[in-house]
Design a protein that fits this description.
The chain is an alpha+beta fold. The chain contains nine helices and nine strands.
Length: about 260
């Protein structure tokens, strides 16, 4: 699979799509949401897309748009794993590699953290070019770095929920609420823009018959999502709402690598 990208990003995309769905991708006439995400990944190139997919560089984009208040506290940015001085970090923090997705380490108690295992994991991530695996081309242009940010804690003690706003040309369409998140699973529920109706985008959500309350910072989240997403045909804007305050998470251009069955 890694060699396919060097031969043809389109070939890799067609292979991944057929393997996941059993259908052939019609890239010349994309109809479904997934097909259009894959078309954008292959053919919509822009330096701002690369910058905003970078977990560190995106911070300056928020600041330029007057939304620096939504950023979590930054403890450090590193180009090499051995630059991280764990002794100077607080008891709780989050480490992220900036050039991919899922490259996160959540430390709830530094005294219980296996530092050497953490370093090994980070080194493996720093050597990984995720664009070669899933074909998300914007990741290939990001300089691998590691950032350390504040760990968000919900006052209730429950896992922090995140809210992912699907935006098209700067207009928010819907929000996916991710609740009861753990390392292995989470609940996903889609709501319309007014948070009045649950949308039929998730089969498991409809079968569960649950109702997720609108987050306290919802209006601020939507306003920020629409402002930051204006330059892009599509981007999913990810936020947290903790203690009545909105926090920025990241900008996602190809959710699930552009293929969500």
């Amino acid at each position: 699979v890694r060699g396919m990208l060097r031969v043809s990003p389109l070939l890799l995309t067609q292979y991944r799509y057929h393997r996941a769905t059993g259908k052939w991708l019609d890239i010349k006439d994309p109809r479904s949401f997934d097909e259009k995400l894959l078309w954008l990944n292959l053919y919509w190139r822009h330096p701002l897309k690369v910058r905003c997919a970078d977990k560190y560089a995106v911070r300056s984009y928020l600041e330029e748009n007057g939304l620096g208040r939504l950023l979590k506290e930054l403890y450090g940015v590193y180009t090499h794993v051995d630059e991280i001085d764990f002794g100077r970090l607080p008891d709780q923090f989050v480490l992220k590699a900036t050039h991919g997705c899922g490259f996160n380490i959540f430390c709830k108690d530094k005294a219980r953290l296996d530092i050497e295992a953490t370093k090994d994991k980070l080194r493996a991530w720093m050597r990984t070019d995720i664009s070669q695996i899933v074909g998300e081309l914007h990741y290939a242009s990001i300089v691998p770095r590691i950032i350390c940010e504040a760990y968000l804690q919900d006052p209730s003690g429950r896992p922090v929920s995140d809210y992912k706003v699907y935006c098209f040309d700067g207009r928010a369409h819907c929000t996916m609420a991710c609740t009861d998140r753990s390392e292995k699973k989470a609940n996903y529920d889609f709501y319309d823009l007014g948070w009045r109706n649950k949308l039929a985008y998730s089969k498991t959500s409809l079968l569960a018959n649950r109702d997720i309350p609108k987050p306290d910072a919802y209006e601020e989240i939507i306003a920020a999502a629409e402002k930051l997403s204006k330059p892009f045909p599509f981007v999913r804007m990810d936020f947290f709402s903790v203690g009545g305050r909105a926090y920025f998470g990241e900008m996602t251009f190809s959710p699930n690598g552009g293929i969500d069955t």
